[in-house]
Amino acid sequence: MVLISCKNCKKVYEKDDYTPFKCDRCNHKVRRRVENSLQISLALTICAMLLYIPAMIYPMMVVTQLGVNQESTIIEGIISFLEYKSYFIAGVIFVASVAIPIVKLFALFFIFLSLRVNVKIENKTKILLYKCIEAIGKWSMIDIYVVALMASIVQLDELFNIKGGVAATSFALMVIITIFAANRFDTRIIWDEQRDDE
Ligand SMILES: [Zn+2]
């Protein structure tokens, strides 16, 4: 007899072996560990890290005013908010679009790496780090909301036009891929005493 819990709703089952089955409470497929969880999450994290680069160096917004195009990256946007003395908005954008995504990606990368390489770090710390990443995840889309909101407000005027730039697409993709990387990760792996490669 073995005990196995549903990753989705946490219901615990008593079974003869670890053969996958469907959870009768939430219909989630119950497996001992999510297949290739670590490899896929790590690959997605690296992918999101690469997307962070175009999100920072390419224009986030293209503002057309009287036929003249003006492009600005996230950093340039923050600087212009600082110039207008809007410190709060500048702070929010910096934390949400620059700091949180990279901290999150490095934290995930660190957790995944620590499961492969021998690092002197307690499992409880790893779980805590993972919980923090999950908690701050939903706030990193703020920047996309700002662009979308401004575009919808200003679009009414024909002389003045705001569009999302290349960085907006990369940024949105990066945020979504990071969410997948975090969700696809089976935290139970952290507690495995002897990892037999999933
Ligand atoms: Zn379930």
UniProtKB/TrEMBL annotation:
Segments crossing the lipid bilayer: 38-58, 87-115, 136-156, 162-182
Keywords tagged on the record: Cell inner membrane, Cell membrane, Membrane, Transmembrane, Transmembrane helix
GO cellular component: plasma membrane
Location within or outside the cell: Cell inner membrane
Transmembrane helix in keyword set: yes
Main location: membrane
Database matches in InterPro entries: PqiA-like, PqiA-PqiB_transport
The keyword Calcium is annotated on this UniProt entry: no
Coiled coil: none
Pfam families named in the record: PqiA (PF04403)
Protein name: Paraquat-inducible protein A
Organism expressing this protein natively: Aliarcobacter cibarius
